[in-house]
Amino acid sequence: MKPASLRLLARLPRSRKGSLLVFSVALGALLLAAVWFTTARNALDESFGLIGGRQQELAVAEQRLQETELRVRLAQSAKALVRDANASAFVEERWGERLINVAQAPLARQDVNNLLASVSRDSTRIFGAQAFELSVTRPDEGLFDTIDPRSPPLMMTMRGTLLFRTEETP
Questions:
Q1: What was the pLDDT predicted at 140?
Q2: What is the secondary structure of the chain as a DSSP string?
Q3: Domains of the chain: which residue ranges?
Q4: Distance between CA 107 and CA 115 in Å, rounded?
Q5: Residue 53 CB coordination number (10 Å)
Q6: How far apart are CA 132 and CA 126, in angstroms?
Q7: pLDDT in tens, 114-135
Q8: Beta-bridge partner residues of 135
Q9: Which pTM was predicted?
Q10: 13-69 per-position pLDDT tens digit
Q11: 161 CB-contact burial (10 Å; exposed 0-12 / middle 13-18 / buried 19+)
Q12: How far is CA 88 from its chain centroid?
């Protein structure tokens, strides 16, 4: 004996109504599957869009984190420098500042030596140069020749900040 469902399926193709019913059910199932597939595909596209946006936000956040960490390191370094400066008697109130700007000035060698000696570093002064250039004015002379009163002047450019002590350390 055949089960009832198999007998029903065997009889369906024989009848026209049965064939239409099977076709209608199959068509409905196919339409439902197509709608479900389209909806799932749209949801997948939206998910990929969200993932792309989140990845971009993550990259921006990581960059901000690196910038923040750099600022923290710079702040810690600045604090350490201030602490070391205070320990070494580099207290801001005890120092003065003078800007030096000599632009392509012809100077005698003795004057150049005196100017360089005045900005040389020691315990009472520190010079931070921004620009420095020293050159001869004639091609037949050397920069390190001995000083001769008849020598032509040297051309000098020097720009920077001279820090000098205004009071002694205790």
A1: 78
A2: ---HHHHHHHHGGGSHHHHHHHHHHHHHHHHHHHHHHHHHHHHHHHHHHHHHHHHHHHHHHHHHHHHHHHHHHHHHHHHHHHHHHHHTT--GGGEEEEEEEEEEEEE-HHHHHHHHHHTS-BTTEEEEEEEEEEE-SSTTS-TTPPP-TTSPPEEEEEEEEEEEESS---
A3: 1-88, 92-165
A4: 10
A5: 10
A6: 15
A7: 888 888 888 788 888 899 898 8
A8: 155
A9: 0.45
A10: 567 777 788 889 999 999 999 999 999 999 999 999 999 999 999 999 999 999 999
A11: middle
A12: 33
Q: Max CA-CA distance within the chain?
A: 135
CB of 98 closer than 8 Å to CB of 125:
no
Token pair for 103 = 């632009």
Query: Quick check: 7 pLDDT over 70?
Result: no
Q: Round to whole Å and give the CA distance between 48 and 37.
A: 16
Residue 144 pLDDT exceeds 90: no
The pair phi, psi for residue 146, each rounded to 5°, is -70, 155
| Sequence-separated (6 or more) residues with CB below 8 Å from residue 106 | 137, 153, 154, 155, 156
Under the banding of pLDDT at 50, 70 and 90, the label for residue 11 is low
